[in-house]
Design goal:
two-stranded antiparallel ribbon, 4 helices, 52% helix, 6% strand, elongated
């Protein structure tokens, strides 16, 4: 059946009911409420889920921005690379998965007001810093 969303009919089969709908939410981090914020892989996977849903949803750019903002709230690029236990927060799989988020996120925000925002720059900074952090960890491991 059809549902009315923002005054427009939408196919109910396209509505994914896995949590709060990412539509310009006041608190994008709420989209990650069921994700362990100490598990970077889970945070990145949730971002991928939100971006994937946004590809077929309404207000795709808003959804993408919410996904990115929420991810940055949980994994800020400014956070130290080493956790309190002395472990690097990033591994090769995580860095690769983060890099895979760039294309869908860029496609979703292209041409929108989010394209040249501080949030987008911080997101790209997260991707770049994750790569550098992984290289630093590998270098430090080789020295020991």
């Amino acid at each position: 059946g059809d549902v009315i969303r923002d005054g427009e009919p939408a196919d109910a089969s396209a509505v994914k009911l896995t949590g709060p709908a990412p539509t310009g939410a006041a608190d994008p981090a709420a989209l990650y409420s069921k994700v362990d914020d100490e598990d970077p892989q889970a945070c990145v996977e949730r971002c991928a889920e939100i971006l994937s849903s946004a590809l077929v949803g309404l207000r795709a750019a808003d959804c993408a921005n919410d996904a990115i903002s929420g991810l940055l709230a949980l994994l800020p690029p400014e956070r130290p690379a080493i956790d309190p236990n002395g472990e690097c927060r990033f591994d090769l799989v995580l860095v690769q998965r983060c890099a895979q988020l760039v294309a869908p996120a860029a496609a979703l925000i292209k041409g929108s007001s989010y394209e040249k925002t501080h949030t987008w720059c911080r997101f790209l900074g997260l991707i770049l810093s994750a790569t550098v952090r992984l290289a630093e960890e590998a270098f430090e491991g080789a020295e020991q």
